[in-house]
TrEMBL record:
One of its GO terms (biological process) is DNA transposition. This is Transposase. Residues 41-199 form the Transposase IS110-like N-terminal domain. InterPro entries: Transp_IS110-like_N, Transpos_IS110, Transposase_20.
Amino acid sequence: MVTKAKQRKSAGTKKRFIGKPNGQIQERVKQCGPEHFGIVSVDCAKRRSKWMLCDFFGRVIIEPTTVEHRRGDFAAMIAYINDACQAEGLTDTIAAVEMTGIYHRPVQRAFRKAGFDTRIVHPFASSHYRTPLHPDAKTDDNDLEAIFHAAVNGYDLASLPVSEVYQSLQSLSRHRHNLVKQQARVKVQIRRIMHEAMPGYADPWEDDKLYHQSVALPIVIRFSSSEAIIKAGVDGISKHLNKSKIRFQMRTLERIVGWARTAAEPSELAAMHTRQWQDLNRLRESFYTQVRASEQEMAGFLVKTPYALLLSVTGINVVSASRLVGESGPIEHYASARAINGRAGPYPSRYQSDEVDHADGSLIRQCNRKLRGAAMRVAENLIKCHPYYRGLSGSWAQQKVDPRDRRCRIANRAMRMLFQIVSGRQLWRGKGVDREYLLWKLQEFHRTHGTPIEQSIVNMQEAFVWLPKSAYAEEAKPLSELARKKHRGAKPIADLLTPLLIQLGVEAPDELNLKTSEARSSR
């Protein structure tokens, strides 16, 4: 029997227009007619903006007008535009707002709230069209003309709406990133000023070990000079640490006392320098507290998105996943993994003209830099922690591939992996590497951050929604063991974990039921 082959439509039949795909307006202009299509151009500033209304042909309907960034002025502007559109017979209108840091957002929100299709014009696009029109004159009116031309040619980009969860993740991740950078600067200043008061004391502790995983800082806060350390001796320092409940090793204390006996003379302003670095240390502790609080809050928003499934990948934790989520946005906004990589830009630039083709230039400049930074951070973590990606990087290193190129390759692969996991609502699988337990990993994160157990269970229940049913049995194993252990606290963890275990399809063991009933009867 002869079967007919299915005929597929040729890809060449699809219409293609010059310009960005999410900025095209050709079909809309064709439907209503160019003389009935209006474009509102807005040049934004910090306190006020300038705008004008034209039709598609460039006929000015409302001359350039200034609007203050106030609610009443925005309402008057919208009413003026609607009246003009009705009088001129404009049946379709878009608002092209030039991006200016964060100061364009009040104008953008006002037009969106009024029901306008609000587009964003990048300053590079408006500058490109302003330069040939007015080479040596940059004014607000000239900028409005350039914004109009960018919109006509499809460079006014439509930005899809983003829910409050993703906006919160972006704000929190950026805030945490800034706190970490400021904390790093303070740490450098502490080392420098401490060297003035106690020369050479901080040298044995490199990088971050001076502030964590050592007794160096608790000792120097109590004994703030070499003379004080010599006077206290090993016995005095050990008594202070025991009283403060700080673990230590005697050889470390002996090394510190040995340094004090051979230390160089401090500066003449040693007392002042001591006060300065101790004040900075209190500021560092404040930054540290804020960072941990931000991370706890980020976890609460992460579990409300399908990106929580990334926690099943070795090397991706709450912080790196949250930063990536905040910068990338909903996965529904991307048609494929190439769209994510195209926005992040972890690939080289290309220059081609006739027979000349240089496809191995430096990284492209025009991209979402924050998204690329998040992707590169994930790539570094995967190279460090994930056996498969570490092996890939090692094989490329033997081929003498540049380390920067290796990170870019891993970042490209990581974005493809991200798209498959998040869009497919699945967990990590393949490459001969076992996945990590998502709920257990989330619980460990909250345990190390000191999150209240009730909030930890709430986050785990929200993350449970994204789990595929085939993973329920595996996810329940470590939680069942955790519920059997004895824990101190006002409320036993077994009481809180039992509903989640039931959702995972695991019946609570008799021993667990007995402990739960005994705890309830005692209360």
